[in-house]
Each structure stands twice: as C-alpha cells, then as structure tokens.
Write a structure and sequence with these properties.
Elements lengths: L5 H4 L4 E3 L12 E3 L5 H11 L2 E5 L5 H16 L2 H4 L9 E7 L4 E11 L6 H5 L6 H29 L9 H5 L6 E7 L11 E9 L5 E6 L5 E4 L5 E3 L7 E5 L1 H6 L9 E4 L6 E8 L6 E2 L16 E2 H8 L19
Parallel strand pairs: 2-3
Antiparallel strand pairs: 1-7, 3-11, 4-5, 5-6, 6-13, 7-12, 8-11, 8-13, 9-10, 9-12, 14-15
The structure holds ligand L4NPZUNZ, 2-oxoglutaric acid and fe (ii) ion (FE2).
C-alpha cells in the first residue's frame, strides 16, 4: 500500500473514539470441547450475534502457513499485487471496498470457495507463490468450514431443532456460495495526528451470509456494536476464532439472533492481518424463518432466495441496513 500524505488520508472516514481503545472483557467465550457449549452459543447469538471460540480443532500449521503466505503476498510490490485485481468482486483490492464508493485503510484478496470458481486462473496471477497460497487457502478453508458446521450443529441442538444439520447442510452443499477474504491493514502513523479520532480500516457493516469465522493476528482494531449502539473493542487473540451471526441467520431465526454490526479501525504502529470465511447457502436456497422457531408468530421477512438477497446487497453501501428491504411492514 502506498503511503498517503496527510491531505490524502483525510479522504478516509474518521470516527471519534476514546484513545487508547479500552477492551471489552465481556465477549462470550465458547469452549467447543465442553458439552454445555450449546446453551452458551444460543445466548451469545441472542445477546451479541458474536462470540469467541477456543478448542476449535483447526490445526495451527494451517493457520501459520496461510499467514506466512499472505504476508509474502501483501509484501510484494503493488504492481505485482495489482495483477490480481481489481476485485470485481473477486481478486486483489486496495482501499476500495465493493463497487459503490466505500473505501478503507485496507488491502485484500477476495475469492469464492465455490468449486465452480476458476481458482486456478486467479491463483496463477498471484505471483511466484500462487500454488502455495492456493493450497494454503484450501487447507485452511476446509478446516474452518468443518468447525463452522460443528458450531452450526451445536447451535441447532441448542435451539432444540430436530434436524441437527439444518444450517450446516447449507455450507456443506457443493453449491454453497461461500467466500474467503484475507484483509491486510497496514499501520497508519498519521493516525496519531488525529487526536481522539480513529481512521476506518473497514467501515461498519453486517455480513450478509449465515456465519462468518474470523481469525486475526494479535493486532487490535475489530469493534462490534452492542444492542444499545455502543462500539466496543474486541481484544485480539491469534489463537482463537471470532464468530459473527450473518443476516441470513437472523432471518432463519426470525430475528431471534441479530447479525452483528462490526468494523475495523486502523492501527498507528502495527499491521493487522485477518482471514475470514463467510459461510453462505446455495444461490437458489430460500432464506426464511425455520417453522420450529416461529412460535406461532408470522415471519418478519418477505420471501426471498439467497441470490435475490445477494444481488440486492451488492447494490448497497457497506453501512446500509440491507435486511430492511426484506422486512415485512408491521401492521398497525
Ligand atoms: C460495499 C459492499 C462490499 C460487500 C458488498 C457490498 O456492496 C455490501 C456488502 C459487503 C460485504 C461485507 C461482508 C464481506 O466482507 C463481503 C465479501 C460480503 O459478502 O458482503 C463484502 C462485500 C465485498 O467486499 O465485495
Ligand atoms: O478484517 C477484519 O477483521 C474484519 C473484516 C470484515 O468484517 C469483513 O471483511 O467483512
Ligand atoms: Fe464483516
């Protein structure tokens, strides 16, 4: 990423924030090896739409291999990285997020995990390490997807849904429309000059899919919004995974779970590297509340398929409430 002069940096979003960020100690912690995790996961999804997972079973070597391949890629010259861009939506992106004018202090690689995605074509332009990075992504994504499915099955059990794989089968489907993203947030020393303010790395948003699994290095930056609208800083933990409830899971639980609004602030000294798996359903899948979760109530949402939601989502700005377009108007 090029170093920006002060006037250029002012084109990025800046938010008021207490400095240094005070970490929130109340992020729900789920130990996947413990039998009581099902009730704790349900509670975390209801209260925060967000939790942290330990004893996750994802091999450390898959994480460190991908991390070192990603560092190699992001350290290569901009002209090389740009050969894999621009992201439309897949490929290498730098500062531009999506195609509707959002920007952030971030560079990234976005790929589809769908088997039909021409990964080879994309990987072949990732430079000398293309095969290494492709294999590292594949190993990592397979392991993380397995963990995401385990979480979704425990969640279904916690919700007393008879069909344990009701959510996980959507990720397991060979047509699952899932996405993987590597985000690199370079340090931004100029941040120090905006006393009491922070530069946005990745602007506030919710994730449209069912579930997102995030792992980052030990650099802070991730914040989530609580139900009362307050932003809290999530203490980084490179040995754990963070789980976000996505918009689709909000709909499938008829609003019992809320998709979590989150954002990333740039750091003035350390670079942040994050890897996120976004587990989505097949394009043709109808996204609707599960009958057993309706409790005699009507659906809060109009009927739609994932492809309809996705098309609509990609027309929105990052911070928009994308689900509002699919909510039924409450009768007065
Ligand atoms: C501004 C945008 C970027 C995004 C597509 C969108 O139009 C609105 C949703 C955004 C988001 C957020 C979560 C994931 O990072 C992402 C890949 C996704 O599925 O939805 C991004 C999209 C993107 O960066 O292309
Ligand atoms: O990079 C991060 O830590 C989070 C990014 C994010 O929320 C996203 O890519 O959707
Ligand atoms: Fe996100």
């Amino acid at each position: 990423m090029v170093v920006l002069s002060k006037p250029a940096i002012e084109h990025f979003s800046i938010v008021n924030n207490c400095k240094p960020p005070s970490y929130f100690s109340g992020v729900p912690l789920i130990d996947l090896s413990k039998p009581d995790s099902k009730n704790l996961i349900v509670k975390a999804c209801e209260e925060f739409g967000f939790f942290k997972v330990i004893n996750h079973g994802v091999p450390t070597e898959f994480i460190s291999k991908l991390e070192s391949e990603a560092i190699k890629f992001f350290s290569s010259p901009l002209s090389e990285k740009e050969k894999a861009g621009p992201a439309d939506p897949f490929g290498y992106g730098n500062k531009k997020i999506g195609s509707n004018g959002d920007v952030g202090w971030v560079e990234y690689i976005l790929v589809s995990t769908n088997s039909e995605f021409d990964y080879n074509k994309f990987a072949s332009i990732l430079g000398v390490n293309s095969e290494n990075i492709r294999d590292a992504v594949n190993d990592y994504v397979s392991a993380v997807k397995k963990m995401a499915c385990q979480i979704l099955e425990v969640l279904a059990e916690g919700l007393k849904i008879q069909q344990r794989n009701v959510f996980s089968k959507l990720l397991m489907d060979e047509k699952s429309d899932s996405v993987f993203r590597l985000n690199h947030y370079p340090p931004c020393p100029e941040v120090e000059e905006f006393s009491g303010k922070n530069l946005i790395g990745f602007g506030e948003h919710t994730d449209p899919q069912i579930i997102s699994v995030l792992r980052s290095n030990n650099t802070s930056g991730l914040q989530i919004s609580l139900k009362d609208g307050h932003w809290i800083s999530v203490p980084p933990d490179q040995n754990s995974f963070f789980i976000n409830v996505g918009d689709s899971l909000q709909v499938m639980t008829n609003g019992r779970f809320k998709s979590v609004r989150h954002r990333v602030l740039a750091n003035s000294v350390k670079s942040r590297l994050s890897m996120i798996y976004f587990g989505g359903p097949p394009l043709s899948e109808k996204i609707a509340p599960l009958p057993s979760l309706m409790e005699g109530k009507d659906s809060l949402y109009k009927e739609f398929t994932w492809v309809e939601y996705k098309k609509s989502a990609y027309k929105t700005r990052l911070a928009d409430n994308r689900l509002v377009l699919f909510e039924k108007i409450a009768a007065s």
